[in-house]
Structure formats: C-alpha cells, structure tokens
Amino acid sequence: MTEPLKRVLGAQVRDLRLARRLSQEGLAEELGVSTRYLAGIERGERNLTLDSVDALAEQLGVEAHALIVRR
After folding, report:
1. Is 39 inside a domain boundary?
2. What does 4-37 look like in DSSP terms, one character per residue?
3. Which of 17, 34, 54, 69 has the fewest Cβ atoms nearer than 10 Å?
4. pTM of the model as a whole
C-alpha cells in the first residue's frame, strides 16, 4: 500500500524546511499560519488546498509538484 499523499507532502515540507535551516516558527510566520498548523502539515494530518500547496512551494523555493512526488 502506498503512503497517503498528505504524509508525502508533510515529509517533503519538513525535509525542505530543514535543508533551508528554517524553523517551523519562521516558515509559519512567512506563510501566515500558526506553528501548530504547520506542524500538522508536516505530520501529514492536514488536508491542504492547492493554493496552500502553491504557497508552501513558493516559500520553500520549489515547484509545487516537488512537494507531492513520492520518493
């Protein structure tokens, strides 16, 4: 069975955030969301809109599809 897409996205967001040496607090502030909400995204607990995926990708400096590609 494949991993749920929201978990894939969460892991990608976490990996990219850490690679860019961003804190959850810093990225959450840039996105205009709470740290708790961003933590939920990273844990794969949140269903995001496509607009939210676009905003995350822009802040992390990647194309949106890079956040949902299974490795």
Report:
1. yes
2. PHHHHHHHHHHHHHHHTT--HHHHHHHHTS-HHH
3. 69
4. 0.91
Residue 68 domain-assigned? no
- Assigned token pair, 67: 């956040």
* Total domains, the chain: 1
CB atoms within 10 A of CB 9: 23
Task: For 15-58, write each residue's pLDDT tens digit.
Answer: 999 999 999 999 999 999 999 999 999 999 999 999 999 999 99
Which pLDDT value is given to residue 51? 95
Residue 23's domain comprises: 5-63
Q: What is the CATH number of the domain that holds 37?
A: 1.10.260.40
